[in-house]
Amino acid sequence: MSVAKGLEGVVALNSQISSIIDGVLTYRGMNIDELTEKANFEEVMFLLWNGRLPSQSELDQLKQQLAAQAKLPMGVLDQIKSYPKETHPMAVLRTGVSALGLYDPHAEDNSKEANLSKAISLTAKLPTIVAALYRIRNGLEPVLPHPEYGFAQNFVYMLHGKEPDPVAVKAIDKALILHADHELNASTFAARVTTATLSDMYSAITTAIGTLKGPLHGGANEQVMATLQEIGSLDRVDEVINGKLDNKEKIMGFGHRVYKNGDPRAKHLKEMSRQLANQTKDTTWYEMSVKIHELVEGKKGLKPNVDFYSASTYHYLGIPRDLFTPIFAMSRVTGWTAHVLEQYNDNRLIRPRAAYTGPTNQSYIPIEER
Length: 370
What we know:
Belongs to the citrate synthase family. By secondary structure, the chain is mainly alpha-helical.
């Protein structure tokens, strides 16, 4: 029996949501470069869920639905307040989504209409959970979502409790677009496996968040920032990175299983990091990132992926390191829910085989003889 470790190269299902062909990422056939430059995140949500861009009235309606659904049940907010302050935000997010299912009387309704409604509700509530956690653990009261603000604007507002800076809002909006979907990545596959059992959407998204938490998936950008903070200054980049490479240590944020000539999302995040560096007049984190990029690509031939420049981008926005992956989840929940909808529409239980490599022809030994 032939084994594809990590399912590498295995085509497991058909999907109309996103594609990676010859290094080009598209959502519903639309190039990520064009969407990042021209669309807003709400348009991309609608595109992923419905297969087309919205009309103005449809976009307005979606924005109204998101604003109306953003508030958390008090029980979920009380839960967040009760957690130890050192709890990782991804663990809080995972548990929060599971708890949201308890407050939804239609949680077990897997009709397309009910699940689309859940997709909107989950997408609306994830930023509220992330922002509330950030404020609670810093001794601040959570900020209620603003009914007139857009998605990215509301997140920045709830996080910092003041009128959002337009540059920060634009950067968050672009970052959310870039992270919204990525074909059959680990967390999306996990969500589809759960969905294929005909479990509910809350269970599928809880599964996905638990998968995204891992450092080989969503958690990689946290590790990139940890490396930048370990280095601390531009003049230490050569010493630290060369030392890590000499010791065969993995430099997070480089290489990608499906991109051999570079991740198309990385250039957008690099440009965002550059712009924010200039705006804040603190170019250190951007310059360190560029130097690491040049060293790793020069010595290992590896190009940066989406995680690498997102670290310095989020840092410039005043976002703490352990919120990087929750922001990834805030974006990717749109893709996850789109895949859940697609899986329900054409479902088959996902049940691969394993090649057994253990001992054979064993006999039971009575306990007194062991």
